Amino acid sequence: MCRLRFPAHLRRATGAHARAGRSRTAALNADGDETPHAEQPLHAVPGIIGISRRPTRREWRRAVITFTLGLVALLLVVLLVHPQPPLLASGAAAPRIVLRDADGNRVDVFAGAAHHPVVLEFFTSTCANCRRQAPELCRLQEMFPAATVVGINAAREAATVVHAYALHHLAAGCPVKLLVDPAGTVSRNYQISVVPTVYVVDGNGKISAGGFGETTVAAAARLLRQLQGG
């Protein structure tokens, strides 16, 4: 193996050039310009404690799950501290309902029921369960023509909103009336906190039962059969 040998004057020039380069580098470092900084680690991602690098997909997923569980726990605490008010008890007198329907007609619900059972569904136009349940109200009225089935808007929405809701979610010719409660008085009297809420009132104006959710229409049908002796 042969080692290359440079003439003495070239070796001196090369050494001087290298020293000059080191001097320039030192000067640049001292001034803070064009300094090749060492690579800095990534800061910890909020919510992922102790990670000073880019989190992996598994770590992100764990963080999302932890956040979701924490949110659910918080909601449960809120519900425990501020529970939903109870519905009117069975056997209690049903508060009077005199409201206007979406077309502006005055409706006295129990006066028009003529001592027959009444089914009350409290709804809002934005409630997905209410929208799915709306056709069931029409079928319930058809199954029990002697009963009175009405929907009461529980969100103080305008009559135009309730009218549009009826057009979209009730079948043409459906006899169910949708009533507007602009002051929220009836909803408060019936202690409505969630929708849909359904009450069944017997022919004597007494609360027979009340409940939440989509299954309440089927439960109302069973109760109407009992009230009518069928």
The CATH H-level homologous superfamily of the largest domain: Glutaredoxin
- β-strand percent reads 5-15%
Query: Span from first to last CA?
Result: 112 Å
Q: Give the fraction of residues assigned to helices.
A: 40-55%
Helix and strand string, N-terminal first? HHEEHEHEHEHEEH
Shape by Cα distribution:
elongated
Please characterize this protein's 3D structure.
The chain is α/β, with parallel strands linked by helices and 230 residues long. It folds into two domains: 59 residues, no CATH class; 130 residues, Glutaredoxin (3-Layer(aba) Sandwich). Strands 2-1-5-4-3-6-7 form a seven-stranded mixed sheet.
Ordered list of secondary-structure elements with their pairings:
Elements lengths: L7 H24 L25 H25 L16 E4 L4 E3 H5 L4 E6 L4 H16 L4 E6 L5 H11 L7 E4 L4 H5 L7 E5 L5 E6 L3 H12 L3
Parallel strand pairs: 3-4, 4-5
Antiparallel strand pairs: 1-2, 1-5, 3-6, 6-7
Keywords, please?
230 residues, alpha/beta, Glutaredoxin, 7 strands, elongated
Summarize the structure.
The protein has 230 residues and is of the alpha/beta class. It folds into two domains: 23-81, no CATH class; 98-227, Glutaredoxin (3-Layer(aba) Sandwich), CATH 3.40.30.
